[in-house]
Specification:
The chain is about 80% helix and about 0% strand. The chain is built from 21 helices and no strands.
């Protein structure tokens, strides 16, 4: 484990244990403790990564491989936006308010453990802790839809965990160790890699199920739609990316796909990524519920990350990691805005909405920024990550994959423009006539994330410098 980041695991865990006792009878104290914990951690992480001396030195002073620090920062940023939003969204007197914040903080600790782990068994333990907290968070909304989503998440998460354990057992028997370094050294040698690749494939299949990649995506729309609104943002923004997608990207770097050491697994991963891009985008076109459409959009965008991870070249891994970060930003904005729309109108049925831009201008225009970034419109951050992925495919001679990935970016733009027209533009609906913009505290997280989307796009040369440093450390 990266010991330099250990505090970012222990402090939220400590706060999660304190909240149920300290906030008894003082529910607002739970809001304060959760937000202060995450904000303090976020400020420390940003200073660690972005202080002037580090930037001037080309980020060479960054500890570890750089990937862990980047992802812990993303975890804290999304979680802080969710808890800050929840402080004003969660109704007063909610019976499980303290447990709700404790679960979010435990999930932050678990995700930090996932991205700082240095061996597969530790990774598995933290992923299972994250799965349990996610199940509890989904069922926070004890409506039939919430319970159905939680049950589907559990039923598909269980076989995924079994596959990961099976892969761990195979790796232990063939390598004698579960450390990342040992797998990396082995894959750099000339020893036949068949049994090791088989074990890695079992693990990767489990991680793909947890990621919600097609054709293992059946739980995702129901879980996102049925979950309590801020929980949907937490799940879509960061949880599924860390519990599954991150592990796939990490394994792709360790298996050295770009050296041709596991060509079959690499090709299969790329095919699944392409299928996920297509299935998610085409399904999103047919949705009438806003949260469900955003869920299918997430499936499609995860496909880009998996496609790049399957290619495994340094440029592809840079694109995959950057798109993972971008997905955390724009999906958090879109899901928080869907929660704001639901709070203002009582529905997420797009057929009942329309003309909301007049009543909710801030919500509308932050959604425009997020959807343009998702579709890859320059100069927003999503444009650069998709460009890197498409360029990596083209350079590798996979021009068909590159063209399909580019074409489905236009499909993404199409369904998001349709969403924006149905919900915010067009004829003013009865829901819009009765709605008003949500309060400034509810808008603040979406505005913050929208600013991050713009900043990451405009400051791309600095971002690329960091990512290039990171790729050199995790591959070589």
């Amino acid at each position: 484990m990266d010991k330099g980041l250990l505090a970012y695991l222990l402090i939220p865990l400590f706060s999660a244990l304190v909240i149920p006792f300290a906030a008894r009878g003082r529910e607002k104290l739970a809001d304060i403790l959760a937000n202060v914990t995450l904000l303090a951690g976020l400020v420390n992480l940003l200073w660690l990564a972005l202080r002037p001396s580090v930037i001037a030195g080309g980020f060479e002073e960054i500890p570890g491989d750089g990937l862990s620090l980047l992802l812990v920062t993303a975890i804290y940023l999304v979680a802080f936006c969710v808890t800050f939003f929840s402080a004003w969204f969660v109704p007063a007197g909610m019976p499980n308010r303290r447990a709700y914040y404790s679960l979010i903080l435990v999930s932050v600790a678990a995700m930090t453990g996932v991205v700082t782990a240095a061996d597969f068994f530790t990774l598995y333990i933290y992923i299972e802790v994250l799965a349990v907290t996610s199940f509890a968070l989904i069922s926070t909304d004890d409506s039939p839809k919430g319970l159905e989503g939680a049950l589907k998440y559990f039923l598909l998460s269980f076989p995924a965990s079994a596959l990961i354990l099976g892969g761990i057992a195979v790796l232990m028997m063939t390598l004698g160790s579960l450390s990342y370094d040992n797998l990396h050294i082995f894959m750099s040698s000339d020893v036949p890699a068949g049994p090791v690749v088989f074990g890695a494939a079992l693990m990767m299949l489990g991680f793909l199920i947890k990621s919600g990649v097609a054709p293992f995506h059946m739980w995702t729309p129901d879980a996102y739609q049925g979950a309590y609104a801020p929980v949907s943002a937490h799940l879509a923004g960061i949880v599924t990316k860390i519990s599954g997608v991150y592990a796939v990207v990490r394994m792709a770097s360790l298996l050295r796909f770009f050296d041709g050491r596991a060509q079959g697994l690499s090709a299969l991963l790329m095919l699944l990524g392409l299928v996920s891009i297509a299935v998610g985008a085409l399904a999103a076109l047919r949705q009438t519920d806003l949260k469900r459409m955003l869920a299918f959009s997430s499936i499609s965008q995860i496909g880009y990350i998996i496609l790049a991870a399957g290619l495994g070249t340094p440029l592809a891994l840079i694109g995959a990691v950057f798109h993972l970060i971008n997905h955390a930003t724009f999906k958090t904005v879109l899901f928080l805005n869907s929660a704001s729309v639901e709070k203002a109108t009582g529905t997420t049925d797009m057929d009942k909405l329309g003309g909301m831009e007049h009543a909710m201008p801030w919500t509308s225009w932050t959604s425009v920024i997020a959807l343009f970034s998702t579709a890859g419109v320059p100069p927003l951050s999503g444009f650069w990550s998709k460009l890197l992925i498409i360029l990596a495919l083209w350079e590798a001679g996979l021009k068909g994959y590159a063209v399909i990935a580019l074409l489905f970016s236009t499909v993404t733009l199409a369904y998001f423009v349709m969403m924006q027209r149905k919900v915010f533009f067009g004829k003013k609906s009865d829901a819009a006539a009765a709605a008003t913009e949500v309060s400034a505290p509810l808008l603040a997280p979406a505005v913050l994330m929208s600013a991050a989307i713009v900043a990451l796009g405009l400051l791309f040369p600095y971002v690329f410098s960091y990512l290039k440093m990171m790729a050199g450390r995790i591959i070589l």
